[in-house]
Structures are given as C-alpha cells and as structure tokens.
User: Fold these one by one.
Assistant:
Number 1:
Amino acid sequence: MSGGVEWGLHCCVVLSGAGAPVPAAKLAELHDVSQSYLAKQLQLLSRAGLVRSSLGQAGGYVLTRSASEITVLDVIEAIDGAQPAFRCTEVRQRGPLATPAERCDTPCPIARVMAAADRAWRESLRGITIADLVADVSRTTPAEQLDRARAWLRA
Amino acid sequence: MSGGVEWGLHCCVVLSGAGAPVPAAKLAELHDVSQSYLAKQLQLLSRAGLVRSSLGQAGGYVLTRSASEITVLDVIEAIDGAQPAFRCTEVRQRGPLATPAERCDTPCPIARVMAAADRAWRESLRGITIADLVADVSRTTPAEQLDRARAWLRA
DNA sequence: GACTCTCGGACAAAAGTTATCCGAATTGAG
DNA sequence: CTCAATTCGGATAACTTTTGTCCGAGAGTC
C-alpha cells in the first residue's frame, strides 16, 4: 500500500478540526513531509471529491462533507485506487493442459478466496470514519496540545 | 501483493494431487511460467516448511503435510512475508507540533484501524485450506480433465 | 562414476513508488 | 486594476521493489 495513504488520512483528520481552508504547504510543514509530493496526494483526494480546494490568497483545502461521512476506505481508494491487491492472471488458461477460455465462465477458486478476503478488509475499513479517528485522537491527547495545534493552523 | 503468490497456490494444489515428487521444471512448464523464477518461490515455500524437496533422479517437490493442514495464508506469508500492508511511519512524532516519543506508548488511531483490517483479511485467508481449493477445483472441472492432468504429471 | 536435480546467490531488467520543479490559471486584497 | 498568494497539472528524475535470468556448488539416485 502506498505511503501516501497515511498522509492523506492525517490530513483529513487535521482538516476536520480546522475551521478555515488550510494550504497544502501548511499541511506539509505540519507533518514534515515533502510539500510537492503531498500536493499530489491532495489532488487525488480532490479528484475523488473528498476535499475541495479554493484558490487565491486565503485558499487551501477543506473537507467537502462532514468527517462522519468520510470513511477510511474512501481515503484509501482515492489515493491507492480501488483495485484489489490480488489480481488473477488466469494461470489455468496457460500451459499444455490449459482449460479453454470458454470454459472459464466462473472465476478460479483462488481468485474467489482472495476476493472474499479483500471484501473483508474493505468492509472493516468502511466501518470507520474520519470522525471516529478524530474522536480517538481527542480522547487520548491532552486538550492543551489540541489547542496549540489549532492555534498553529490559524497562524 | 506479489504475483508469485498465485503461482505458489497453484503449485500447492497440483502437488496435493500428485502422488510422487514433482520437479520444479515440470511445475513451471505446466503453468507456463519462468522456471528460474518459480524455483525461487518454491524455495520460499520450502524454507517455510510447507513443501520439501527431494534430490536426485526422481526428485522434486512434495507437500510436507496434508492439504487440509495448509492454509492459503500460510502460502501467502511464506512468499510475501508476514508483514502487514500498512506500516505506520509515526507522523505524529514529526513536524513543529510533534508529540514526544515518550508520549507515544499506544499506536496511533490510524495504525490501529489498519491493523484491525489486516487482521480481518488474514483471518479470512486462514480459514481456507489447500484442500478446500482442491475440492472446489474437482467439483467444477470434468473428471476426464483431472485424469489427463494426473497422467501428464507422471509422464 | 555419471547423471539429474535442488539450492543459493549474484546479477539484470522492468515496474512502481517517491519526490521535485515549473508554468498556467484563479482568486482575494490593496 | 494590479499584485501577491495559491492551487492545478504535467513533465521529469531518483529511488525502491518486483520480476526475471543465469550459473556454479552440492547432494542424491541409478
């Protein structure tokens, strides 16, 4: 899985706490990552409709919906794509004993098992929203630190 | 996920049906894949203790246990390694508002969510054995074709 | 003793990931 | 209206992982 997913999730958490648009450069500085590369991840989030960018002097990124309506899976699929980790190369249709393609109407058992596992993985991630992450963060970190973060974002 | 996983699973299915050791070259020809590269995957399976190689003229690979005692996850972890797809880079310990390392005794919420999804994925794959795959294959393919496969392996 | 086979590492090519930079377009403030 | 700040998108390069090949050493069988 792409490392950009982690950045994207952190950005969404931060964005849900900020009341105003946050420039990409600020998000990069906050997380101490390359701002050029983070920009690319944010563009992916924007293309997926999870965030919106406003141009101009006071521009930046904002979530398009409530944090409780954005799942972790949404972010992952926006950045990494929705394609499953396993892709069947139809080994059974190759080699000296290849079964003809017209017989392969159903996916091979291996692909089926992998697809089921992939569904379980996605289902687990679909059940968690950005709001859940935020709740977890604000529960485990002291309020004073959260205030400092908000102040830093405004500055 | 590495493409070699698919080959490894197919090989285990074939091996469970063959009564005698099958050389790596034969497995490669059967699946029409590079024999040098497949050899590497088989070595990984061997190192993990799933298959055993016998040397000499009638040598080849054999499963070390019953197909019902080898899970799909066993094969995946043997070839791809047991490391989870997501690895937390501890973003919270970086940047101007970094939380000190001594405060990070518990994993960050994002890592926790990812780990839970990873467990769900692995649990799903741990529940399926090579024997299940074999049963599925022998149920969906005509007996005549299975006999041809067995005959080809012996030759 | 000759043959067959596996083992393991070294090595090369291809693909994907990570990262950088620059110009164009857009918006808000003076 | 003009200027400064900002995002957007593409082109590009460095790096890492994956994929694939090759060959010699060692071990077993006939």
Number 2:
Amino acid sequence: MVSKNSEGTPKWKSNGNNHPQNLRRQLIVQQRKSLPIASVEKRLLEEVRKHDILIIVGETGSGKTTQLPQFLCNGGFCRDGKVIGITQPRRVAAVTVAKRVAEECEVELGQKVGYSIRFDDTTSATTRIKYMTDGLLLREALLDPLLSRYSVVIVDEAHERTVHTDVLLGLLKGVQLARSLEGRKDANSVPLKEANNVQNRVSLKPCQGSKLSPLKLIIMSASLDARGFSEYFGGAKAVHIQGRQYPVDILYTHHAEPDYVDAALITIFQIHMNEGPGDILVFLTGQEEIESVEKLIHERVQKLPESSLRLSVVPIFSSLPSEKQMLAFKPALSGTRKVILATNIAETSVTIPGIKYVIDPGLVKARSYNHRTGMESLIITPISKAQALQRSGRAGREGPGKCFRLYQESEFAKLVDSTTPEIKRCNLANVILQLKALGVDDIMGFDFMEKPSRTAIANSLEQLFLLGALTDDYKLSDPVGSQMARLPLDPIYSKALIVASEFNCLEEMLISVAMLSAESMFYTPRDKLDEARDARKCFTSVDGDHLTLVSVYRASAECLEKSRLAGSKDKKAEKTLNKWCRENFINSRSLKHARDIHSQIRGHVEQMGLHITSCGDDMLQFRRCLAASFFLNAALKQHDGSYRALASSQTVQIHPSSVLFRAKPECIVVYQMSSILYFGIKRVVISHLGKGGKKNQQIK
DNA sequence: GAGCACTGC
C-alpha cells in the first residue's frame, strides 16, 4: 500500500540500504559477527554465571574489550540498575572503546554506554556499561567501599600491571568476599571472625540495609601470565580466546651488534632497498636518540639512487607537541615510505596504521626508584620477552609483517618473561595513603599479587608519618591524613596545600602544585634555543622555580581572560591561548593539564573548608610555607657548591634549567631528585654517572 | 650550563 501525504500525492520511501548510515550499520554488524569472540558468546556467559572469578586470556584483535560487556548486558547482568564496569590503564582507551560500543549498541554516548575518566565523565543514571580508568575506580572505592553499583567489574589489560591495577586487584578480591558474606549473613553460615575481618578491612561505614548481590570479577590479560592471575585468585578458571593477528616473521642478527643505533640505521636502509612497500617502525629509547637518528637518516638519504622510493622520517614521543605527533598518523605520500622513530609510546599507547616492518633494538628507558635514598633514575635496560612480543605484534595489524630484532636469538632467551610490576619500583606513599583511607591498616598484610619489599613499605610509612598523615600507631590521622587521602596528588603536595592555608598563601600554592603535577611546561626545540630562553626570562622569579611557574600560570590566565573580555567564545579563547603558548615556548598540552588539575583541586580544597587567600607580594611568607611543607626534600649547600640532601645524605646538584642555578642559595628545597645513568647491553655508553637534582626554592 | 621512557587520580 502506498501512503499519501496531505496533498494526496503518493509518498515513496527508499528501503535505505544505500544510505551511508545504513552501510556503516551493516559494516558494524558484519565486523562484530566476524570477531573471534562472537562464536563463544554462549560459552562465555555460562562461565561467568558458573564462576565468580574468571580469567580471560584474549589475544590482540579478539574483540574481548568491546564485546564481552555487551554479552553480559544482554545476558541479564544489568538488571535492577546494576552497572558493568570495565577498567583500562589508559584514558584514551576508555574513551575510544566506549565510543565504539555506544555506536555498536546504537545509543548516544552517556546513555546506556559511557565512560568516566578524570576531568571527563560522560556517564548518567541510565549508564549500564561503564568504561573507566583503573585509577578512577580506586577513587570511587573511597566513596563506596563495596562498589555496590556494580554487578560485574572487568579489569582489562591486567598484564600491564600498573600500580593502579595491582592495588585494584587486591581491593576487588576483598570487596568480592565482603559482598558474598554480606549476602549470606542471615544464613549464619560464615564464621563470625572471618566475616568481621573482611568487613573491617573493606568497609569504613556499616553497610546500608539492602542486601548486595555477589560481585562478578573478570580479569582480562594478554597470553603470557594467565597462570599468575589464576593462582592469585585461588586457582580461578582461565578461558582462552583466539586473536586475529597476521603472522610476523621474526629475524635476529647473526652476531652481537656493538652499536644498536648504527645497526638500526643499516636495517632501515636494507628494508628500504630490498623489501616491498610498507612503513617501518623503529623503537628507540628517548628524544635525544630519536633526534640524532633522524639527522643521520637525512644525511644518508642523500646518497640513495634517484630512482628509489622516497623516505620520510617522522618522530613520535610523548613530550612532542600534539600537532607534530599527528604527522606520524598521516599516510605517506605515494612513492614514499614512512619511517617512524618512536619511544615506548608506540608499544601500547598509540597504534600507528600502515606498519609492516618493526625494528627492535631490545632496549627501553625505564624509571627505577631507590627506596633507601628516595632517588629516581631513568635507566636504559633490556626489554622483557612480553615487550618484545608486543613490539613485533605492531607489524602484523593489517597484514603479514616482519620484525628485525637487533640482537641474537640466544640473547632473547635471556630476557626476563615480563617487566617487573610498577608497584615494586615506585614510591609507595600514595598507595599506602589510599589503602589506609580504604580501611586497610595492615599494609604488610594486604593481599598484593606481588608484595613490595618491607623496606619500601617501611620507608613510605615513615614519610607519611613525618608529613603528619599517620598517627603514632600508624593509623590515618584526622583531619590531616584523611584530607591528604582525598586529594589526588603526591602526598607532599597535599601536605603543602594544608600548610599553605595556615600561611595564607593557598592561592599561590594551589597554582604551584598544579603546575608541578603536570608535565614539563617549557618546550625547547633544538633549533630555537635562544628564542626559547629569552621567552622564559619574562617569567623568571628570583624567588625560585615555584614562583616562576606561578607567574607563567598567571600570565596565561590573564591572556585567556583578556580574550574572553573581548567577547571570544571558549573555543576562540582557547585558540588565542595556544598561540600565546607557541610565542612563549610553553607546552600547551601541559598547561591545559595544569589548569584542569588546578580547578579540580581547588574544588576539593574548598569542600574541605580551607581558606584560599593570597600572600600578595610577600614572597617570604610563601618561601616559609615551602620550607614547612617540603622539608623532606631540603638540601644544604656544601663547600664545593654542591648540595647535600638532608633526608638521604645524597650529594645533589641544581639542574641548569632552574632559575636558582647561578644564585646557589644556602638552603634549597627540591621538587624532584633524579639521577641519570646509562647501561647499554649492545652499545657501551657509560657516559656519565652524575646525579642531577632539580632544585627549586630558597628558604630563609 | 644540561636534558626528560610512559601512564594515572
């Protein structure tokens, strides 16, 4: 039957099959059906119903992250307003996956499907599938210790073993037990002592009347260490899901390469001259190395025969301004092969399309932490087998690829299976503060998957005690400790804010702490060293780096304010600010981050009832406040002009980028202490073993 | 007068 409109003429309607939106729709349905996980939907649901804890080992491309939550939701796990939570180690993953799943479900983002990350929450009361960062779920647990809104929590990428993931695993284990005890309480089937232990540990507040359903836990990991997770969760069932990855040929060198940078260069040109089309991804250790390899490639390109394919070089590392990072994602022009020189950022954080060849020297620059001295170092070390696998996998995303490992096969066998979890190589003060706030008093007794050393725990407890966050018997102090635990900051910075409210300089300290918490503000391109230096001089304060950062922040705020007063909308004002950043050699991404932190922390501080006042021109007051709060990082000048850190007796030097580098005051407080060492397995680069301290502020 | 892998709340 043909319907007619009001004028009586026939109205025709296409079946819509050719509409771009419908084509996209069909494509999505097709793609979902072809995922390896699609064929095991029923089996997975059964396993989840049968087991309270399930380990899912899913290879790259299995579809586990996007599909499993949808299966569970359709399988009834969102009933009674319950939420399925999926944690990710990285913000960008939470956002992109949530957007994709919302599209697959044909819902608007923030309705049934949403994401929640720091500074950006798209969820609503109707959200049933919630993607989030693991750190954010930890923060949520402070407000809701039993995570009562969730029916299922899926911890994705658990093999990465970030600090947040590790703490979360221990916490979830306790929450699960407490909720199952809660559900069985009336049946009186649980020994009282056991129930009390868990209740005391997990929940700060007594549970509200309604009974809680048990919590389902799903741990998703890449193939290598499923056994470790299974053992940790009492022999939990592990399910394997096939991936969809193209084969990658692995090639090793015949001999040990004495210089991996040179070996990488030779390999780039060998691939370029002898192999078929496809881009090359080279893993290097840092900015300096990338820049020097870039220069060397440009020199050697001149010697290529005229007839050969062109070669374009694109660097990518995290501190590179975003617009320059984008170049790595642009397809190469026809007749050109792209060589991407990347740090570890390309291992997991970003996926660059078009890669067919990977060159892997087998090294990484990684942070290590000395629990005794409190000193951080960046050390170039061999990667783990898991990392080598992850790197080679980057060549097989779109078709068969090749990975050239610049070391011998016998060396590969010597690599450790997986990287040491971060929790064993970082300062634990923050972790301990959060656990204490969650009601875990016995840190040594907490069920870590891998327990940090006794020294590490003891030193961090000591630090928290000295900051006044803990009482004599190592319980969270009130109000200082609980206030510090509420702030998402390094405990020293949290303490500084509390002290600053007493010194009437909280306004300045809020800015300092936000600026110090973000990444480096100053961007210094090699070819514009002098210009960058001159620009920085405008902000320099003789009172130290903290106040220098304050003046950068205030100048940027003034620029934004002016632009808004002139009637600019937010977008335009932001553009104006970015232009200001470029002119002043400020990294706009870092500044944006600092502004976000500032507004978030300001909110917390106001809620706590602290008074936000400015010390005006009284810099002495601000410096006194720094001394009172950063005392753990104080250092005194010695005869030879170096400094001795009071807490650890380490000899440190002021970093040349500091405004106090020349002034050399008698006493300083530093905001970061780090040492630089070089170890090369292939390349003997023992260049210098000095210790550089970044200094900051003179104290009277 | 020197350099900073990468995340996250």
